[in-house]
UniProtKB/TrEMBL annotation:
The keyword Disulfide bond applies. Residues 31-171 form the Thioredoxin domain. It comes from the Eukaryota. GO terms for biological process: protein folding. The gene is QSOX2. PROSITE patterns: ERV_ALR, THIOREDOXIN_1, THIOREDOXIN_2. This is Sulfhydryl oxidase. InterPro entries: ERV/ALR_sulphydryl_oxid_sf (IPR036774), ERV/ALR_sulphydryl_oxidase (IPR017905), Sulfhydryl_oxidase (IPR039798), Thioredoxin-like_sf (IPR036249), Thioredoxin_CS (IPR017937), Thioredoxin_domain (IPR013766). GO terms for cellular component: extracellular space; Golgi membrane.
């Protein structure tokens, strides 16, 4: 026994380099699975008893996976890289398939989560469940319960087996070799699908939160911009498609005079916070503390520098245009034009948009007029950008600009006669049929227009 011990000790000294190599290899393997290192930060969302229902009820994903684990459990620690490898396909800014599956986890070893883990009858670790996010938020799981929309995942103990289980449930073919930013969500042709609507609203939240951050970062709240911003916020409180954004904007409005008092703002001064020392962004989140999240779903481009914010803002404008009543249409039009003129930091975009606003000579008396104006303005912008991007090669190769709806999507929207503009034949859209088509894409609970995937 002593000889064996001496042999082991001597081996550990003489093979130190080999041991270090082994450890390095092991770490490399773990990194390839998704655990550890700056290249693979955790993307599965940690939930607890205080935010479980709220976060899941707000998720735009069609389905969620919830892992119940205990941090002291060796099997859970060994499973984490497998779970993270799958989560990276669906969660986070680099997700290949965002909006399909929301990957989360709950630590049952934390006392605050005891009742939550009991609610789902957690009997071993790790234990995985599958279901629509809203069902997790409002429900529970009981063994052998029939017709439950929450299911125990019985075969997910490796990354490959878990992904295979998900593929079987969705009828999909997701793979760890999938190309980054493939984003089949945006390419779906069924624009009236409820899941598409939810994902679009998710990006509308992201867009307005980003826009608010830009306003603060660029110190754009001054005496002459104060009134246009208040009016825009009032429009959002009444008609933003997201309840969270309506509530967050209302809170900002209630505190607006304290945060940006009119008496201390000048045209050259930065905003001044009198009532508190903290940055307003940290105390007043326009769409809640989870937003912005740092990534896009419906508005995601195939490259980091395409679509995103501009797409999200367009979807917001379309949404507002159909949510206002006839009597509000013209005032909403003026408020939006003033907001873009004062707060959109892309100078060419701001100038072109305001020129189109200035060409409107008659009041917009109906929702129909306002919605059609936003639609035609968006198409005009796309037509201009289409030419520029084609000439310069700066467009998104997978989502080139186009006039929406396409002739294939709505043949009846097009006039039989064409018009020649600058030597090029342009197909002309008929407004009445186009508005009827827009109306068919309204989902009554949210009344948000979902555009064709190349349109934004």
């Amino acid at each position: 026994m002593l000889l064996l011990l001496l042999f082991l000790l001597s081996s550990s000294v003489s093979t130190g380099a080999a041991a270090a190599s082994f450890v390095g290899s092991r770490r490399a393997i773990l990194r390839s699975l998704g655990d550890g290192g700056p290249d693979h930060p955790d993307v599965a969302v940690d939930l607890n008893n205080s935010n479980f229902d709220r976060v899941l009820s707000a998720s735009p994903a069609s389905f969620a996976v919830v892992e119940f684990f205990a941090h002291w459990c060796p099997a859970c620690r060994n499973y984490k890289p497998h779970y993270e490898k799958v989560a990276r396909l669906f969660n986070g800014p680099d997700a290949v398939h965002p909006g399909n599956v929301f990957m989360t986890r709950v630590d049952c070893a934390e006392k605050m989560n005891t009742k939550l883990c009991d609610r789902f009858s957690v009997s071993y670790f790790p234990m995985l469940f599958w279901g629509p996010p809203s069902k997790f938020a409002s429900g529970r799981w009981v063994p052998k319960q029939e017709n439950s929309e929450i299911q125990n995942i019985d075969d997910g103990r490796t990354a490959e087996r878990l992904l295979n289980w998900i593929n079987k449930k969705l009828g999909s073919s997701f793979s760890f070799d999938d190309e980054k930013y493939e984003n089949e969500n945006v390419a779906q042709s069924n624009a009236s699908d409820v899941g598409q609507v939810a994902r679009a609203i998710y990006d509308v939240e992201e867009a307005i939160a980003n826009a608010f951050d830009i306003i603060l970062d660029h110190k754009m709240i001054k005496s002459e911009t104060r009134a246009p911003l208040i009016k825009f916020f009032q429009l959002l409180v009444a008609h933003h498609p997201s309840k969270r954004c309506r509530q967050g904007t209302a809170e900002i409005l209630v505190n607006f005079d304290e945060l940006w008092p009119s008496g201390v703002l000048s045209s050259n001064s930065e905003f001044t916070v009198i009532s508190q020392d903290k940055d307003p962004r940290k105390s007043f989140q326009i769409c809640g503390k989870e937003v912005p999240r740092g990534y896009w779903i419906f508005c995601r481009g195939s490259r980091n520098d395409t679509r995103g914010l501009s797409c999200g803002l367009w979807v917001l404008l379309h949404s507002l245009s159909v949510r206002v009543s006839d009597g509000e249409s013209h005032s909403a039009f003026v408020v939006i034009c003033d907001f873009i003129h004062n707060f959109f930091v892309c100078d060419d975009c701001r100038r072109h948009f305001y020129e189109m606003c200035s060409r409107v000579s008659n009041p917009m008396n109906t929702t129909r007029e306002f919605a059609l104006w936003v639609w035609s303005t968006h198409n005009s912008v796309n037509e201009r950008l289409m030419r520029e991007e084609n000439d310069l090669g700066t467009g998104d190769p997978k989502f080139p600009k186009m006039i929406w709806p396409s002739r294939q999507l709505c043949p009846s929207c097009y006039l039989s006669q064409s018009k020649k503009i600058n030597g090029t034949i342009r197909n002309r859209l008929e407004e009445g049929r186009s508005f009827q088509f827009l109306g068919q894409l309204l989902w009554e609970d949210t009344r948000i227009i979902i555009q064709g995937h190349h349109y934004t």
